[in-house]
Amino acid sequence: MAGVTQARDGAVGILTLSEPSSLNAMTPDLLGGLATVIGEITGDHSIRALVLTGEGRGFCSGQNLKAAEALGQDIVDGVMRYYWPAFRSLRECRVPVVVAVNGVAAGGGFSLAMAGDIILAARSATFIQVFSRIGLVPDLGSTWLLPRLIGRQRALELMLLNEPLSAEQAHEWGLVRKVVDDERLLAEAMTLARRLAEGPTRALIATRALLDESEHASYGAQFRREIEMQAELRTSADAIEGRNAFIEKRAARFTGR
What pTM did the predictor assign? Predict the structure, then answer.
C-alpha cells in the first residue's frame, strides 16, 4: 500500500509509515493507504493489537506541502475525504493501538500520534505543533486531543509558542507512557502491544469508547452508560473466563471474544 508497510508478529499487527525521504510527511496516498491497511489488518480477528511507527529518522513531519494541491480547491472537503478516514480508523480501531514515535512528530504528525491509544517515544523524539508559525491553527484533531492529554494551559503553550517538546518533557507532562533508547523503541512497543493483545479485547475497546463518551456526558449519564456497557459485556467469553480465573485463583486466558 502506498506509503505504508505492514507486518505481523503473532497477534500484533505492525504498521509503518514508509516515506522516509520526507520524514513520512502526509499525502492523500499515504493516509489513504493507512486507512485501508488498518481496515484490512483488523478485519482479521486473530489480530488483537496494533503498533504504528515511522520508517527512518522521523515518525511524521506533518503535511507534505507539495502534495497539498491533491486535496483540491475545497480544503475542508479534501481533508475530510482523504485524511479523516485514517484518523477515524485509528481512533475507533477494533483493537488497542500503540504508537511508537521515532524522531519528529510535527503538525499533523503530532495529531496522528495522539489518535492512537498509548504513545511510546524514542529518546530522540520531539513533538511540535508548528501551525501558528505559518499563520494557521492546529488541525487534524489536535485541539480536541492535546488538551485532554496534557491540559489546556500546556496545550495552548505548545500551540502558541511552537516550542518543540522533548521526549522526556512529553513523558513528564503525561503525553507519552515511556521514553526508551532509540534502538529499543520497537521492541518496547511490541512488548506493550503483546500485553494488550493478551487482554480482553472487547472490554479494552469499550473502555476507550467510554472515556471518549465521557467528554460530553454528565456524571449521571456516564454512570448509567458504564453499567449498560457492563451488562453488554458480562456474558462475553472473556468476562466469563475472567470471573472463573478469579474464583480459581489462576491467570485468565482471554481470547478477545
Answer: 0.94
